[in-house]
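> @MW can you paste both from yesterday?
MW: sure, first one:
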Amino acid sequence: MRILIWRCSTINKNVNLNEGIRQREIRLVGEEESRIVNTRDALELAREQELDLVMISPTATPPVCKIMDYNKFLYEQSKKEKENRKNQKFVDIKEIRLSPTIEENDIEIKANNAKKFLSNENKVKVSIRFRGRQNIYTGQGTKVFDIFISKLGDIGMIEKPAKLEGNNMIMILAPKKH
């Protein structure tokens, strides 16, 4: 003989199960039909089938419930979540630091590194640090950014324009969608 343990508490905080459902009448949804029944009758039907009575939509009037194997439902839901996480693509942010007094050839080298990062579908954070008296000449930083972007060509696009944050001017570039 199979012994069932009826759970009054909820595994998922948002879902009411079995005796945890406190309403008098519920809408019982089946595969073919839906009908309004007394909660006790629905619990009896679930016990006869050795399944759980699960509240799907508590905000509806009357609340919507379904008879199902709740553990199997949770297992299938966790499998779907794992599959979705497996298919996700994570984007790294690579950083390139420049200075306001950088030479043209050095900008070329840094731009080539940025092209590699962007071709690998990574975002690039370009930053310029101003030290001491350089804080007065933030316009020089925007000129350096303009030269840097012109060296990239059409590989990347500006996701977040240059913005001065304290002693740093930061800009974020993203790869262009093809």
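MW: second:
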Amino acid sequence: MNETTYTDTELDELDRIARQIDIDAPAEQVWELVARPGWYINDGTVEADPDLRHEGDVAVVRHPTLGEFRFRTVTLDKPRYAAFRWIGTPYRDQSTASTLVEFWIDEREGGGVTLRVLESGFSGLADDPAVWLKEREGNDKGWLAELEAAKVFVEKSAPAPATQP
């Protein structure tokens, strides 16, 4: 059995996933997607009309094959920052530890935005690092695909730039 060991510093770094992507669209348009809890629960294509309902302060996103995912909104600071607590998945119920998913929308000089995501708190999901590192691994790959899906979705629906006479 090949068991990898990590230093405390390495585990601290692995406790979070940080990714970013440039999107050629206005911040307000990116915000419309990012402010929606669980927009990243999909099969690589963002849904314009997801199966989303609310149970009190919990947003429930139902995916036809993956099941239900639960989120609690932590902060919405339009159009720059949104944070959600990922409190339940088909693999982990909402009474257990959760991760925090944060989004920043930074306007770029010359137009468009950089969308940044930080998911943190993986080490709180289990005492055994092997367990939470396995869950983190799927999300690490997933954020690359989800940010690309966000870019495609938002740019497809972005208004065409005005032409100069």
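> thanks! The mean pLDDT is 88.
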